């Protein structure tokens, strides 16, 4: 039989392991239920995180579509503004050209008016002259040398008068045409100016719309940045929840397997207990006279092997709190404080290490073929199975169990006499 199974056998014989297992199954079931509740909560949180991520993605998609439409509208407005700017520039050039034509026309009109005024003065002077010389208008004719000369002189005076009058009429007609042209150009200038003003107002309206679009785009971009930040946080939260969910699932699986193992061990314990009771009933029936007080007879412990000598007290500075046999086949030794050091009672090797949550770690040391010591309620041991230990070597610290006070140690001494292994009072060997 291997040493570790020897340790289990010794504990089973004394009824310690079945009691610990019986205590552990309900606690393990509670642990599994708590972990399953935590797992369900984690799944609900992960699903909530998934819904939040979907909503944020939908909102970001909606914002992206809206931003794309606004950018198209902005591009259209910019193109319209550019077209209006070109049209305004062309109108400005036409207006400048019309103004120049109007300036030239007004100059020509001024010059014609000046010429016309001069001709009017000439005609007025001629009329005055003709009026003064009305009585003597034939004097030039009388001075003529001949009739031919007289005819030439009369025709020449008439020609000069008619020419001046025609010139005046021509100048007046030209002046009238120029004034009409100036009026036409003025009307055209007013029309172009009105068009230029309308284009300017339209351009300013479009630029206002463009600014509103830019403000809306800026607001949407800030909103999108906020949504992206929330999405990053949601993704990180989902990643964290998924990691926790995976850990919880692993823990639930491990605790379920542990619960199944505990139940299997409990079932095995019950079977062995029923078998023990059956054998005990058969033994009592076969006995002629039952001896109910035989178990209370204290068998004196055999002497220790000479190679071992006296055992070292396992808890330096401690005291025996409960003597052997009062609560079971062990001593309860109280240390100076919680987490008191525990030392090997003699030289030997680590035969087995067993962990039960309610009892902490139990370490079994084999010193000779007939002598072993058992230390219960340890924290994680400082030795390993199969390791050689010296007398007084530190094995661990008290305080590993839930049902034993953290400063106490349950100490057992097992001896083998003949083919039987039993626990004896450790005080006989100090």
Automatic annotation (TrEMBL):
Residues 337-413 form the M23ase beta-sheet core domain. Residues 265-300 are annotated as: Disordered. It holds the Pfam family Peptidase_M23. Residues 265-285 have a biased composition (Basic and acidic residues). Residues 25-136 form a coiled coil. Residues 286-298 have a biased composition (Low complexity). Gene3D superfamilies: 6.10.250.3150, Glucose Permease (Domain IIA). Residues 1-22 form the signal peptide. This is Peptidoglycan DD-metalloendopeptidase family protein.
């Amino acid at each position: 039989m291997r040493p570790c199974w020897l340790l289990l056998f010794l504990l089973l014989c004394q009824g310690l392991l079945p009691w610990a297992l019986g205590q552990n199954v309900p606690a393990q079931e509670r642990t599994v239920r708590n972990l399953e509740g935590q797992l369900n909560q984690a799944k609900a949180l992960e699903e909530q995180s998934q819904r939040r991520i979907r909503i944020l993605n939908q909102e970001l998609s909606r914002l992206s579509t809206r931003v794309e439409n606004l950018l198209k509208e902005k591009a259209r407005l910019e193109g319209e503004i550019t077209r209006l700017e070109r049209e305004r520039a062309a109108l400005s050039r036409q207006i400048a050209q019309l103004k120049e034509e109007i300036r030239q026309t007004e100059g020509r009109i001024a010059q014609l008016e000046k010429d016309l005024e001069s001709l009017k003065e000439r005609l007025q002077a001629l009329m005055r002259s003709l009026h003064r010389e009305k009585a003597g208008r034939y004097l030039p004719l009388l001075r003529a040398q001949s009739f031919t000369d007289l005819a030439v002189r009369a025709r020449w005076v008439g020609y000069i008068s008619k020419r001046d009058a025609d010139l005046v009429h021509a100048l007046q007609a030209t002046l009238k045409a120029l004034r009409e042209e100036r009026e036409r150009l003025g009307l055209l200038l007013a029309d172009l100016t009105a068009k230029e003003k309308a284009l300017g107002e339209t351009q300013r309206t479009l630029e206002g719309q463009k600014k509103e679009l830019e403000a809306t785009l800026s607001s949407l971009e800030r909103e999108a940045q906020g949504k992206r930040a929330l999405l990053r946080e949601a993704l990180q939260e989902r990643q964290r929840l998924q990691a926790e969910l995976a850990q919880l699932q692993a823990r639930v699986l491990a605790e379920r397997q542990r619960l199944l193992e505990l139940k299997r061990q409990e079932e095995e314990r019950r079977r062995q207990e029923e078998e023990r009771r059956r054998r005990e009933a058969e033994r009592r029936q076969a006995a002629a006279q039952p001896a109910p007080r035989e178990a209370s007879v204290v068998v004196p412990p055999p002497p220790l092997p000479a190679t071992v000598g006296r055992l070292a007290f396992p808890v330096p500075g401690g005291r025996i709190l409960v003597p052997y046999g009062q609560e079971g086949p062990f001593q309860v030794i109280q240390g100076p404080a919680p987490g008191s050091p525990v030392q090997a009672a003699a030289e030997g090797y680590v035969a087995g290490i067993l962990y039960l949550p309610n009892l902490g770690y139990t370490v079994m040391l084999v010193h000779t073929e007939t002598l072993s010591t058992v230390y219960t309620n340890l924290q994680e041991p400082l030795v390993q199975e199969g390791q050689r230990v010296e007398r007084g070597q530190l094995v661990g610290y008290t305080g590993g169990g839930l049902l034993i006070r953290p400063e106490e140690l349950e100490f057992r001494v097992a001896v083998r006499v003949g083919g039987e292994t039993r626990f004896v009072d450790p005080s006989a060997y100090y």
